[in-house]
Amino acid sequence: MGRGSGDGKLNTNAQERVVIKNMPRKSGRHAEQSDKPKNNKPKPISKSLDYRDTLCEECRKGDEEDKMLLCDKCDKGYHTYCLCPVVAKVPAGKWFCTQCSEPDKVKVKEFPLVQTKIIDFFHIQKSNQADVSQNGFQKPKKRGSKLFVTKRKRRLLPYVPTENPDRRLEQMASLATALTTAGVQFSDELTYSSSMAPRSSNRPTLEKGGMQVMSKEDKIALELCKTMSSRGECAPLLVVYDSKEGFTVVADNNIKDLTIITEYTGDVDYLCKRENDDGDCMMTLLVTEDRSKSLVVCPDKRGNISRFINGINNHIP
């Protein structure tokens, strides 16, 4: 589970984690091999005489034993990075390779392509702002020339929604299909609960090493994205189902680098409560000196399109 400060996610303050185009791929799960059932840590293959000559079934190499997983049924080995999708987290129970595991019986029921149902699902609000331009982002005025050259800082850009309203409905319907299939309620905000982590626990002053502060221009871009999303002007993205990867996000139009896609949303919980969680889409929200106060965002019950983003295919055929 990576920090939100890596490529594709921006640390701003403890209330915001922004998903930006060109994200690293989101990893899946690890598996374990251990002789002690009470120990959740995987046992390195090199320490087991029975498996010291095991080779990865994919690359046929026996190196990096600490990253080799053994199927609990056939005892064949696989490197974590050779699997598709990549395995990156130790599960609470047993692990089976694709040959031994039962086929995934996911029933995908398409969300109705009905405007009223989509409006209700996403809680879309009608806009009364007539002064908002198509992209809502004004270019800075040119200033007089100077004798010296300053380095221009790259700023974040708001996404540009698809102009065709019918196509936007299809984009939102694809997200609604993914969310309902996963049993997730749509939410564009962080959710706090007394049974998890209260709102008071999310304080920027607790961040280890300090928070990265957004510039004024970046804040304007972020607020514009929020406004467009609330009006049903979503980012030009489609959520599609893949038999191996599950639900993934692909670009439905050209998206520039450093474009804000959405904020990462879900239930806020303490990291210490989720260390053995099998969820593969959690994201760090707050890292503190006291590990018991660190927070994560868990979109297993509530979330938005960020739950399915593991890299965006920006290729338009």
Strand order of the largest sheet: 1-2-10-5
Rg computed from alpha carbons, rounded to a whole number of angstroms: 22 Å
Number of strands: 14
Which structural class matches the secondary elements? alpha/beta
Mean pLDDT: 78
Description:
By secondary structure, the protein is an alpha/beta fold. The protein has two domains: 9-23 and 106-127 and 156-308, SET domain (Beta-clip-like), CATH 2.170.270.10; 30-94, Zinc/RING finger domain, C3HC4 (zinc finger) (Herpes Virus-1, 2-Layer Sandwich). The protein is 13% helix and 17% strand. The protein contains three helices and 14 strands. It has a four-stranded mixed sheet with strand order 1-2-10-5, with helices on one face. Residues 29-38 have a biased composition (Basic and acidic residues). GO terms for molecular function: zinc ion binding. Keywords: Chromatin regulator, Metal-binding, Zinc, Zinc-finger. Residues 1-47 are annotated as: Disordered. This is PHD-type domain-containing protein.
